[in-house]
Design brief:
3 domains, three-stranded antiparallel β-sheet, hpI Integrase, Chain A, mainly alpha, two-stranded antiparallel sheet
Length: about 375
């Protein structure tokens, strides 16, 4: 960063270098034509504050894909990497290559899906391609700081004949019935953590022991794990939305379980506070968690629910036990890490207490 006077034009200019967050290479910048030194200094300050900040959202998809390939080539087996490149070049580049990532809207995703649906491709194959596109967006968010949730808003490919999945949840009594048959401390702690925090599965599995505050009274959610990336066991990324970064206070019964698991884990060779809470050296696998959950459901004789339904169960518990006032939705939204209270209301409005009687009383007593 420097300001100089051009002796030929008698005007001031500024110049300097900035570091590209992905390539780690320095790039030059320069602006000329300022009447005073103070003008040039102010202009440079504004340039660095505004222009460079905007660059994070002004990245061409072609560059992102190139950078993404460059990273994956170091991490994946050759066959998996070649498959990734071929599928991306065939199904993603033709539509998105010349677009700026922050200019991509849900309508663009919808039109791209329409083009994919017109091809003779299986539903599973199309869903795999959607996940590939999603990982490119995650890569951009992680290294460039971009924020674009158009993929989440539009959603993956769906089978038009597939019935909509019902939102299931357990009452506290049903969860306790399930919890009472769990004979493994690690899984007991995991399922209690999911029920009493409402965390997403990936957020729970990404936790390290140093994500807890002293005394395990609060957990910091700053990352998530994706185990559906072909060619690698898992990928740690930022959470689903900026609102997903949150601190969650924990109830006493959960703190007690976490403390017991910590004391048990400390005795295992190689343990340190950077280890995964659920899995130690590597996170527990999605398939193993699903299998254990199904086994315990069968033994406990409770209805089968999905892992994500633990999150719905937590929301249901809060809705039915918190005072019904204007702060209810906001408090639940923050705890669940939704991007806004509007999302919470859209998902859980049907669980809210029915206030028809209150409304009638107001009108009858006018």
């Amino acid at each position: 960063m420097a300001v100089r006077k051009d002796e030929k034009t008698k005007k001031w200019y500024f110049y300097g270098k900035y570091k590209d967050p992905i390539t780690n290479k320095y790039k030059d910048y320069k602006r000329r034509g300022f009447r005073t030194k103070q003008e040039a200094k102010f202009a440079e300050s504004e340039f660095l504050k505004n222009f460079l900040a905007e660059q994070k959202g002004s990245i061409l998809m072609s560059r992102l894909i190139d950078e993404y390939f460059s990273q994956k080539k170091k991490e994946m087996k050759k066959s998996s990497y070649n498959s990734l490149v071929n599928k991306t070049n065939k199904h993603i580049r033709p539509y998105f290559n010349n677009m700026i990532i922050n200019d991509i809207k849900p309508i663009h995703i919808r039109k791209w899906k329409d083009e994919m649906n017109a091809k003779n491709l299986s539903l599973r194959y199309k869903r795999d391609i959607f996940i590939m596109l999603s990982t490119i967006f995650n890569f951009s968010e992680k290294y460039y700081g971009t924020e674009n949730n158009c993929l989440k808003l539009e959603g993956n490919f769906k089978d038009p004949t597939e019935p909509k999945k019902e939102m299931l949840f357990w009452t506290l009594e049903e969860f306790e019935q399930f919890d009472n048959v769990i004979d493994d401390l690690e899984y007991k702690t995991l399922f209690n953590f999911l029920y009493w925090t409402g965390c997403r599965r990936g957020e729970a599995l990404a936790l390290n022991w140093n994500d807890f505050t002293s005394g395990f009274k609060t957990v910091k959610i700053r990352k998530t794990i994706n185990q559906k990336i072909k060619g690698q066991p898992y990928e740690i990324t930022t959470p689903k939305t900026p609102g997903s970064n949150r601190n969650i206070p924990l109830p006493e019964q959960l703190i007690s379980l976490i403390q017991r698991l910590y004391e048990y884990s400390k005795e295992i060779e190689g343990f340190n506070d950077n280890c995964f809470v659920f899995g130690l050296e590597k996170p527990l696998s999605d398939t193993t968690i699903e299998r254990k959950k199904n086994e315990y459901c069968k033994i406990a004789n409770v209805k089968q629910i999905r892992i994500h339904d633990f999150r719905h169960s937590h929301a249901s518990y809060l809705i039915n036990n918190m005072p019904n006032d204007q702060n209810l939705i906001l408090a639940i939204s923050k705890r669940l890490g939704h991007s806004s209270p509007t999302i919470t209301l859209q998902v859980y409005a049907h669980m809210m207490p029915n206030d028809d009687d209150k409304l009638l009383n107001i009108m009858n007593n006018k």
